[in-house]
Amino acid sequence: MLGVFSVNIQGKVFDKNRKGFIVGLGVGGHSTKLITRFDRVTTSFIDGKFSMVTDGTKSNTESIFGVFSSVKIGYGFTNQFLVYYLRDAAWYSINNTKQASGIMGIGTSYYFKPDSQTFFVSLGLGLGDQTYVDTSTEPRFGSAICVGLGFEFKPRLSLETKFLKNLTKDKDLWNYENEVDSFSMSLNYLWY
């Protein structure tokens, strides 16, 4: 009985039409430029008084490579227009510290044809984050946007290239601001 129910639901949900419920997973690689800006602060303790003076802003830029992941859960309003929850992340390591920068938000895709073997464009807006994977450091949050261009070469299977811009801030003593620009290429599978 459960098997019949499962096949019946799967037949209606994942019926090879993009219209309806969708779930997508993607994995690939990325090239990322990480720009960190922070205030140079000079502190002093003279005559029982503590003072703190901002002495300009320092900037540091790093170019890194790593693994890129993508998750989509949403709905296709037509075979060409999809709206979904989006979680894209660029995973990398700096100074032996594993980190991830990404976007959590709403995404859309527009396919130029209702059938496979078609190009598509995508756009995502949402909360940007920078997470330190293997430390207890709190993640930083901000805003993010991503734009993409892809090609579905077989039903459900596509290649997509994306640009992800992530701006995060940390209002601590150093006033950190991170700007992360990632270019990615991923192989994606979209259940529909």
3D architecture notes:
The chain is mainly beta. It has one domain: Porin. Helix content is 6%, strand content 75%. It has 1 helix and 8 strands. Strands 1-2-3-4-5-6-7-8 form an 8-stranded antiparallel barrel. β2 (49-76) and β3 form a beta hairpin. The two termini are 24 Å apart. Mean pLDDT is 87; it is low at 1-9.
The assembly state of the depicted protein chains is single chain
Percentage of residues assigned to helices: under 10%
SS class: mainly beta
CATH class membership: Mainly Beta
Q: How many structural domains in the coordinates?
A: 1
**How is the biggest beta sheet arranged?**
8 strands, antiparallel, barrel
Which ranges are low-confidence, i.e. pLDDT below 50, for 5 or more consecutive residues? 1-9
CATH-scheme architecture: Beta Barrel
Total strands: 8
**Rg measurement, Å:** 21 Å
Intertermini distance: 24 Å
Helices and strands, in order, run as HEEEEEEEE
Morphology call:
elongated
Strand order of the largest sheet: 1-2-3-4-5-6-7-8
Query: What is the residue-mean pLDDT, rounded to a whole number?
Result: 87
Tell me the β content: over 45%
How many helices does DSSP assign?
1
| CATH level 3 topology | Porin
